[in-house]
Design goal:
The protein has 103 residues and is α+β, with helices and mostly antiparallel strands. The chain has 3 helices and 6 strands. The chain has one domain: Alpha-Beta Plaits (2-Layer Sandwich), CATH 3.30.70. It has a two-stranded antiparallel sheet. Strands 2-5 form a two-stranded antiparallel ribbon. The longest helix is centred in the middle third of the chain and has 13 residues.
């Protein structure tokens, strides 16, 4: 069971429903996340990047984790509670970008 570590954050409205998302009003349009996960990320002016779809394969999950890691302003987040994804985010120094934490 996961324990919420922070209050719910506002998502960019264009995000696809799911665990990976871009927080509203945070993107600086650096295009780094789009370069890490081009099959998952979208970009629209003036709002910036968003997850246009959620990862479906292990390779796409890896790309999503890389997108979270390389976001220049830490605008990308993970709201799920999959222990393996949280651990992978933790191992690259991005645990603080998870909305749930492992006990």
């Amino acid at each position: 069971m996961s324990v919420a570590s922070e209050p719910k954050r506002k998502r960019m409205p264009l995000n696809a429903d799911g665990d990976f998302y871009v927080e509203a009003e945070t993107c600086l349009r650096c295009l780094a996340p789009e370069n890490q996960a081009p099959e998952l990320m979208g970009f629209e002016e003036p709002n910036g990047c968003f997850f246009r779809r959620q990862p479906e394969t292990s390779s796409e999950v890896e790309h999503a984790i890389n997108a979270v890691h390389y976001s220049c302003v830490q605008a990308l987040r993970y709201a799920g509670d999959d222990p393996s994804i949280i651990e992978r985010l933790r191992s690259c120094g991005c645990e603080h970008l998870c909305d749930a934490a492992l006990p």
